[in-house]
Amino acid sequence: MKVAVIGPQNTGKSTFVSDFIGAFPQFSTPTESYRDVIKKNNLSINQLTGTASQTLIRDFIYQQVESAPDNTVFDRCLIDNYIYTWYAYTQGNVEESFLQETENMMRESVAHIDLFLFIPTALSIPLVEDALRDTNSGYIDCVNRMFIQTLFSLIEKTHIQVVSIGGSREERIQQVRTVLNPE
After folding, report:
1. CA distance 92 to 82
2. Residue 102: which residues within 8 A CB-CB, separation 6 or more?
3. 114 phi and psi angles, rounded to 5 deg
């Protein structure tokens, strides 16, 4: 089973992936992440992102999902990349043709993931300022709405399995236990 943890920034996805691996030791996560690509290439991201940044991130995530073995949990997938590319498009930072190319790759890639765990924004999660996160709440809210809109469309058209999780770290793991072990 391949699992992708998705959602806007500052929702605790990376922490959750670590908790997930602790709770489900049969799973592993790739040693390199999209964050390493951002740092290594000094990419402009968030509200400043553009075609060059999104291409490197997209192609890295696409290859990672395609080549990963079963029982892998991912911190983000191409749904996330599509959302941030779509946002960049709304700001005039990427061309429509690039957005369409990214959407096509996303639609192809979702077939390789068995379960999507969506962590939406929550008032209980404090915004953490660092070089990889934008703490502008209006921006984060816009991205959250884009996730919801995209997920509804994907569920309708591709029948992917999406579970929204929230609450404390322990509550999130318990919600996943219910999904992975329904009895």
Report:
1. 15
2. 54, 58, 78, 81, 82, 85
3. -85, -30
